[in-house]
């Protein structure tokens, strides 16, 4: 998992850099930020625990074949629509979302449909929306963001149809 | 868990409500997930017995332990950014009048932001509170979800393969800007009667 290590190093370096900037503004700024950040951390941990530990059970119950069966190669725009709904309804973290996409790809699913699935999952996966986006962001923003993003997976599928396979 | 005195201190320090602050540790959204997890865990127990339940639990507990430090880093990053970014500059470069440049900056922010949802959302929320408008923040969130390198490198590349990942990212490149522009377009028409 060297990529994970690189990301961790970059993440903590960013924290260190902004922390140093805060320190140069004065100790109270640093202390206040660290306190706020830690408070958020304490409040979010139960959600992360639920999201990570719980998603294993949800994923174990939903058979991937059900989702991948919807993404046939000749399914056209109805297939794209199904893919978008399936993407939003897929529970769990990135492993599950991408695994479903990979299975669909191996099973001969249509590329625009798989693109639509992955993009819709990235944008709307309900579990991430409920567990992370809503607690951190103003609810009004979250719903607005989701509504405005609705055309995006269809647009992505359209582009995929237009430019063809890589 | 929460000391009101500390909160008052903090409110005095920055003079406005803290952004990205989790106001309700347990809300309806969490209850939905709790119910879903409980039902699923019960179904796993019915199907695979206690062994099935514990093997998933140990695997996910390890995953949870690995993620925790990143969650802390994300929360700290959000708090620092909210504290440090100057309000006027942010509203100038990411505010309602920032034009295409603001959407591009938001998109770039989303690309470089490291870590998972527990990093991106606190930072996005911090930007929103220091003067970024919905459009630029939408561009940031959508760009993080679609072209952020973190998830692509850690999960998509190994699972979906290089070809698919690169192809999907190329297709996604214009989408954050479009979403942000659409967000601005709709926002102005819905909330025309002055700033919220």
Summarize this structure as a short list of keywords or feature phrases:
heterodimer, A: 166 residues, mainly alpha, 2 domains, 9 helices, 84% helix, 0% strand, B: 196 residues, 80% helix, globular, disordered N terminus
Number of strands of chain A: 0
Query: Number of folding domains of chain B?
Result: 1
Distance between the termini of chain B: 32 Å
Structure annotation, total helices of chain B: 9
DSSP strand count of chain B:
0
Sketch the major β-sheet of chain B.
none
Return the structural class of chain B. Answer: mainly alpha
- Helix amount of chain B, in percent? over 70%
Q: Give the overall shape of chain A, derived from the CA principal axes.
A: elongated
Low-confidence stretches of chain B: 1-20
Strand content of chain A: under 5%
Largest interface: A-B, 86 and 96 residues
Element-by-element helix/strand order of chain B: HHHHHHHHH
**Rg of chain A computed from alpha carbons, rounded to a whole number of angstroms:** 20 Å
Low-confidence stretches of chain A: none
Structural class call of chain A reads mainly alpha
* Number of structurally distinct domains of chain A: 2
Distance between the termini of chain A: 27 Å
Overall body shape of chain B = globular
Task: Give your account of this protein's structure.
The complex is a heterodimer of chains A (166) and B (196). Chain A has two domains: 1-61; 63-166, no CATH class. Chain A has helices at 2-25, 27-61, 64-68, 76-89, 94-106, 111-124, 126-136, 139-149, 151-163. The relative contact order of chain A is 0.10. Chain A is mainly alpha-helical. With 196 residues, chain B is mainly α. Chain B has one domain (28-190). In chain B, 80% of the residues lie in helices and 0% in strands. Chain B is built from nine helices and no strands. Chain B has helices at residues 4-14, 28-84, 87-94, 99-112, 117-129, 134-147, 149-160, 162-172, 175-190. Chain B starts with a helix and ends in a 6-residue tail after the last helix. Mean pLDDT of chain B is 81; it is low at 1-20.
């Amino acid at each position: 998992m060297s990529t994970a290590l690189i990301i961790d190093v970059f993440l903590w370096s960013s924290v260190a850099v902004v922390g140093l900037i805060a320190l140069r503004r004065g100790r109270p700024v640093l202390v206040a930020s660290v306190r706020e950040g830690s408070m958020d951390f304490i409040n979010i941990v139960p959600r992360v625990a639920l999201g990570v530990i719980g998603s294993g059970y949800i994923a174990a119950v939903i058979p991937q074949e059900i989702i991948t069966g919807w993404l046939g190669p000749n399914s056209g725009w109805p297939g794209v629509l199904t893919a978008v709904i399936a993407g939003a309804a897929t529970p769990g973290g990135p492993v599950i979302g991408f695994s479903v996409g990979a299975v669909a790809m191996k099973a001969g699913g249509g590329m625009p449909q798989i693109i639509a699935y992955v993009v819709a999952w990235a944008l709307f996966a309900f579990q991430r929306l409920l567990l992370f986006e809503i607690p951190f962001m103003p609810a009004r923003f979250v719903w607005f963001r989701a509504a405005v993003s609705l055309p995006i997976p269809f647009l992505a599928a359209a582009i995929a149809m237009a430019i063809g396979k890589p | 868990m929460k000391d009101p005195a500390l909160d008052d201190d903090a409110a005095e320090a920055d003079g406005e409500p803290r952004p990205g602050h989790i106001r309700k540790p347990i809300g309806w959204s969490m209850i939905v997930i709790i119910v879903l997890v409980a039902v699923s865990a019960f179904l796993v127990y019915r199907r695979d017995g206690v062994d099935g339940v514990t093997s998933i639990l140990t695997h996910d507990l390890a995953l949870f332990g690995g993620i925790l430090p990143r969650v802390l880093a994300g929360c700290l990053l959000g708090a620092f950014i909210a504290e440090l970014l100057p309000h006027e500059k942010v509203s100038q470069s990411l505010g309602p009048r920032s034009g295409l440049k603001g959407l591009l900056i938001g998109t770039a922010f989303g690309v470089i932001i490291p870590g998972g949802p527990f990093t991106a959302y606190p930072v996005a929320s911090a930007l929103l509170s220091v003067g970024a408008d919905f459009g630029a923040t939408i561009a940031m969130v959508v760009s993080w979800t679609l072209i952020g390198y973190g998830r692509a490198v850690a999960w998509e590349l190994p699972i979906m393969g290089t070809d698919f990942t690169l192809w999907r990212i190329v297709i996604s490149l214009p989408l954050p800007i479009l979403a942000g522009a659409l967000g601005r377009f709709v926002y102005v028409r819905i909330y025309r009667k002055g700033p919220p």
